[in-house]
Structure to design on (433 residues):
């Protein structure tokens, strides 16, 4: 294969991977199966590719993902269930591999000027895939696809409604980043697509009825508004508008009112001893996870032993049996503490620290450096993604869910690269459209 064909094939595989992320786990895995060997083969047989790949391995979040995987891998040896431990550790290895695949290949295939366009193309492909999923979702809700209509929660193509809503949250942030920082450079048709994508994402998040996504988006929006607002008056205006919209939705949208009202009723039922509710189950899982952590704060119960330990608690009568339906405590911080102790939590937090360390200074440059609009686009999206995961991770373990784990690594790989914060990058002809 000629060098130009090799680069072009890799570039199109990356675009297809971005497009498939919201639509098909199997397609994404097949594309990864094709991309990884191609990169390895290129690095082995072509000196310039090898040198370019090796020079770009040191990315801003590489060490953090390695640390997360290393802690999880060591925790396997403290587990009774080695198979479960290896499966969990493999999830963190996937984060590292996908992050490096995007951050290294974008830098390898392009010079810096064209890296921005390539990264934008990948994000656009992701938004097109998400738009396709959302169109299917709306058609499903209206009964055009499937035999039933007006069924909530909305979960098209058998994508769980919480996963569906949170991947839409990431798409919402991506569309917002384009509109904030690239709107003037884009054609009218592309702008129309972005506004349509944004509107459809908001609609699908609402129809998903996921409170995790609702509160995650609301709080993340407040954080991002605070970071990018030119004045505090603008921030308070945005915060006030968001509060008004939230109140109106609560008062006049029946299923929103019902879902929010359930929070109070779940807490009341839990206090009365009825734990078989959404929040009641979470409270019990959090309690069990903390018990696992306190049993061994330094190493936890082991990477693969959350489920066996929960089973032991249930068999001893400490917790109800329905908790065995879940393989994680619906809180990524407590899951890290329970399985890998303090090192697990530190490794998790270090990932977010590294992301925000590189993105926050760029997000906050504002009008002081108008020439960094492209960098701000990527920094805005990466920051919003990290903040959303940090907030929503309080009620779910997103890194245990493939569609969200892959999308997180994809966005961070595209947006948090050394070339975004430094002026130099390897030179190649433009490849990705």
């Amino acid at each position: 294969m000629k060098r130009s064909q090799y680069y072009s094939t890799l570039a199109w595989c990356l675009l297809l991977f971005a497009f498939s992320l919201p639509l098909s786990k199997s397609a994404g895995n097949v594309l990864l199966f094709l991309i990884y060997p191609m990169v390895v083969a290129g690095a082995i047989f072509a000196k310039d590719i090898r040198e370019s790949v090796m020079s770009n391995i040191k990315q801003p979040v590489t060490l953090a993902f390695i640390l997360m995987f290393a802690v999880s891998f060591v925790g396997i040896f403290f587990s009774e269930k080695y198979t479960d431990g290896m499966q969990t550790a493999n999830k963190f290895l996937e984060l590292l591999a996908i992050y490096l695949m995007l951050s290294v290949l974008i830098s390898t295939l392009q010079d810096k000027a064209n890296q921005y366009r390539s990264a934008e193309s990948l994000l656009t492909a992701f938004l097109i895939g998400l738009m396709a999923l959302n169109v299917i979702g709306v058609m499903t809700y209206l009964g055009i696809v499937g035999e039933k209509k007006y069924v909530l929660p909305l979960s098209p193509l058998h994508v769980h409604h919480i996963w569906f809503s949170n991947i839409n949250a990431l798409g919402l942030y991506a569309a917002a980043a384009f509109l904030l920082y690239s709107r003037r450079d884009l054609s009218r048709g592309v702008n129309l697509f972005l506004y349509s994508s944004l509107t459809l994402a908001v609609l699908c998040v609402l129809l998903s009825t996921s409170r995790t996504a609702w509160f995650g988006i609301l709080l993340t929006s407040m954080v991002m508004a605070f970071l990018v607002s030119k004045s505090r008056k603008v921030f308070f205006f945005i915060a006030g508008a968001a509060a008004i919209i939230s109140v109106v939705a609560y008062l006049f949208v029946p299923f929103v009112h019902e879902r929010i009202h359930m929070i109070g009723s779940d807490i009341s039922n839990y206090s009365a001893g009825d734990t078989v509710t959404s929040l009641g189950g979470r409270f019990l899982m959090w309690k069990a996870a903390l018990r696992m952590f306190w049993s061994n704060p330094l190493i936890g119960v082991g990477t693969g032993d959350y489920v066996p330990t929960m089973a032991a608690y249930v068999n001893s009568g400490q917790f109800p049996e329905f908790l065995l339906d879940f393989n994680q405590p619906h809180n990524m911080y407590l899951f890290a503490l329970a399985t890998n102790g303090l090192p697990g939590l530190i490794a998790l937090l270090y990932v977010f620290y590294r992301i925000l360390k590189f993105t926050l200074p760029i997000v906050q440059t504002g009008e002081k450096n108008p020439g960094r609009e492209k960098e701000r686009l990527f920094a805005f999206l990466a920051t919003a993604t990290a903040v959303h995961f940090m907030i929503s991770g309080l009620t779910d373990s997103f890194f245990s869910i493939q569609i969200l784990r892959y999308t997180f690594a994809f966005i961070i790989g595209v947006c948090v690269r050394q070339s975004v914060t430094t002026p130099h990058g390897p030179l190649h002809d433009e490849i990705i459209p």
